[in-house]
Amino acid sequence: MLCDNCHKNEATIHIQEVAQGKKNSLHLCASCAAEKSIDSGLGTVGGFNISQLLYDISNNFGLPGLSEALNKSQAAPKKGGNIKSAEPLMVCPECKWDSNQLRQTGRLGCAKCYETFKTILDKALPNMHRGKIHIGKCPSGSAANAAPRRMQELLELQKQLDHAVRDEEYEKAAEFRDRINEIKKELNSARKKSGKK
Amino acid sequence: MNTNEAINRLLSSKVSWLEPDSSNDDIAICSRIRLARNIAGIPFPIAADSTRRAEVRSAIEEASGNSDCLGKPEMFFKMNDISPLHRKLLLERRLISSELSGAPDGSALVVANDESSSIMINEEDHLRIQVLHPGLDLEQSWLQINRIDDCLSEHLPFAWDPQLGYLTSCPTNVGTGIRASVMLHLPGLIISGQIEAAMHGIRTLGLAVRGIYGEGTENHGGLFQISNQSTLGESELMIIERLDTVIRQLITHEKNARAMMLENNKFVLLNLVGRAYGKLRHSFILSIAEALSSLSALRLGVDLKMFSSLNIRAINDLFIEVNPAHLLMTAGKPLNETEQDIKRAEVVRETLRKLETEAKP
Asked: Helices B337-359 and B312-321, interaxial angle, to 10°?
């Protein structure tokens, strides 16, 4: 088997990872592995890093994962169109990171890139995560603290509503439903106030 | 404390997260949580030039050095200042990643004095805050790292967005930026042939499973790491709770597998452990793969109270000490592969001999 990186030497190092039901394999020759700083000595791969490594490399080789998600979002050339088929290169005004670099590395250059590459990320993020909106913690003292807390509350209530319905406790369910609607209203008006987001 | 003093201090101290966890029959070895954070207004490390990287490093060093966030850390390592061997040592001790080790420019590591928490600087993100606890202890790990994170956020403005949460260089970490993982010793599931099925089950739950030293049935040390994948759309506590539930189920499966073997295949099990002990106690040449798989079997034997003179802590330490950089440091000189195998056999033999002598009345 030839090395996935140089396609010249015999692959001697085989890495496999299954994540979210997809199996990713990577076969490298000793020199490419050294370049990617994979040590064939067992101990030094260090477990915690191998995934990142595989992840990075899989992005470069178009294996399932982020690169797939990112590339799916690349507009396919329109049939019959004589317009230039390639998607225009997007460049972040802040850090000059471009959409090619994003596809190659799977990484963004700065916080602003999340806005710059929004169209790509909007399609890619649902393949990576369980939700689209952050409901965890916020930097302490952040004015935005309230919204995520409410979101978490909303999620908890939704869970309780599901349980109540399952247990046929309809009075309780109605109560939960009313509180959910209240919070949703509150969140919507807060969102409108804070701008277009 | 200069770099050499810090390295020596690390080497002379025992790894705190390898303390035995008898509450779970020592099946869970350690719990780790890391948070990915970036400083607002500065490009992520991949797009930052060396001036910006240096700026980030000083800001974080100052924040952690002048605050109580990490206690009063005395160990700072600039990756540029330390040799490849020392970097490898930190890697084997799980304090840094291969990414940090491979990109020394502007990269650094701050370690709390008890080694339970640390910050990697200019790895994939500006900060990778990490907490390591012995045994299955995600809750306490979370409380500790949450406190450190809150404290640091008072000194450093983190890149954050109300919709997307903490902004990270790789979109797979955006949101909470959390990766929680537990390292488990699962020899029972391997020997009884159930490991692949168990792993498959975990993966269908959206969690990641990795062999620490090799995959599946080729796993050499019987050590696996289970971690969350998704970081957006769930709170930190929800992520941790789900992981914790799955880990507890796995521990039960492992216990069952061990009990079944003791009942039905007792001599197969005794033979496996006995041979592993023989190899470790009497070998003069020991490869890393042999050492790890034998240590795994011996650890199972100690768990099952087959050796009164041995203890889990000593075996846990050996899992680290048989790695190449640790051997080289112990030897105090460069060793080729064969010499490493000889040194490894010596370290293991001597450790076991000492434990047995100490245990004798």
From this structure: 170
Cα–Cα distance measured from residue B40 to residue B160, given in angstroms and rounded to the nearest whole number: 8
Total number of residues shown for chain A: 197
Side-chain-side CA neighbours of residue B142 (13 Å): 22
Residue matched to tokens 């995959």: B215
Q: State the Cα–Cα distance between residues B47 and B66, nearest whole angstrom.
A: 28
Q: How far apart are CA B169 and CA A107, in angstroms?
A: 5
pLDDT, residue A166, reads: 82
B249 CB neighbour count, 10 Å cutoff? 13
Q: Give the gap in angstroms from C-alpha B112 to the nearest C-alpha of chain A.
A: 20
Say whether residue B236 is in contact with chain A using an 8 A CB cutoff. yes
pLDDT in tens, A132-190: 999 889 887 554 555 656 666 777 788 888 888 888 888 888 888 888 888 777 777 76
Residues 169-188 of chain A whose Cβ lies under 8 A from any Cβ of chain B: none
> Could you give the ipTM of this predicted complex?
0.87
**pLDDT bucket at B15, cuts 50 / 70 / 90:** confident
Coil, helix or strand at residue B230: coil
Question: Mutate which of A137, A142, A191 to disrupt the B interface (most B C-beta within 10 Å)?
Answer: A137
Query: Cα angle vertex A111, ends A109, A117, to 5°?
Result: 70
Query: Cβ B172–A49 below 8 Å, yes or no?
Result: no
Q: Please, are residues B24 and B250 in contact by the beta-carbon 8 Å criterion?
A: no
Q: Who has greater pLDDT, B139 or B2? A: B139
CB of B90 within 8 A of CB of B77?
yes
Closest among A125, A124, A122, A120 to A74, alpha carbons compared: A120
Average pLDDT over residues A66-93: 55
Q: Decide the pairing of beta strands B75-78 and B108-111.
A: antiparallel
CB-CB contact of B37 with B149 (8 Å): yes
The per-residue pLDDT for B57 is 95
Nearest to B129 by CA among B162, B178, B170: B178
Beta-bridged to residue B32, according to DSSP, are: B132, B181
Helix (H) or strand (E) holding B35: strand B28-37
* Contact indicator for B215, A16 with CB cutoff of 8 Å: yes
Alpha helices in B28-137, H assignment, sequence order? 50-65, 84-92, 98-102
